[in-house]
Write a structure and sequence with these properties.
Structural class: mainly alpha
Distance between the termini: 71 Å
Strand content: under 5%
């Protein structure tokens, strides 16, 4: 290298993609304390342009078909609309880590459960775990919430009035009053 010449750092496309993601996660971290409305507004102002730049950069890439980078690019392009859904609601998370961590006990234990031998048993098990984990995610005591559902759902006419189920959703004020962990 000639004297005075600086060594140029070469960044791979994979590193560039990772850097876009890291920047988005960093921006999300800075918004943690904001209300959902403020978070949504700020996401649209700051993260949407970054995502648009990412999509433009992605379109210019021409990775080898079948390579790990090629598979990642195809996946990102195919899932683009869905990957931006979190921008539409300030309550949503940029990643599904919370959901994956919530179902981990179920997925690791299912091999030991005899009722998962049938499709119906597996479906029932998944439904119950979904209800329990959604209750936990909304700050409810799962046992109280299941009791609450079993007590109130039979009295509703949700087939003709599906809006009656709104009060039974774990994020509703009524369900939180009845089943909050703080209520004990």
């Amino acid at each position: 290298m000639p004297p005075g010449a600086e060594k140029q750092l070469i960044v791979s496309p994979a590193e560039t993609g990772r850097d876009y993601c890291n920047k988005l996660f960093h921006m999300e971290k800075e918004m943690e304390s904001l209300s959902p409305e403020e978070r949504k507004k700020l996401r649209l102002e700051t993260e949407k342009p970054l995502l648009e730049a990412f999509w433009c950069w992605l379109e210019k890439l021409d990775p080898l078909s079948g390579s790990k980078l090629g598979k990642a690019v195809v996946y990102a392009k195919n899932q683009g609309t869905y990957l931006e859904n979190y921008l539409l609601d300030g309550r949503c998370s940029i990643s599904n880590n919370l959901a994956e961590n919530s179902i981990r006990p179920f997925t690791t234990g299912r091999k030991n459960w005899m009722f998962s031998d049938s499709t119906k048993g597996a479906d029932a098990s998944a439904a119950v775990y979904s209800v329990i984990e959604t209750a936990k995610a909304n700050g409810l005591e799962p046992f109280q919430y299941l009791n609450f559902l079993l007590m109130y759902i039979p009295e509703t006419n949700f087939k003709e009035h599906p809006e009656e189920l709104e009060d039974m959703m774990p994020w509703s004020d009524f369900a939180k009053e009845q089943c909050s962990k703080k209520r004990k």
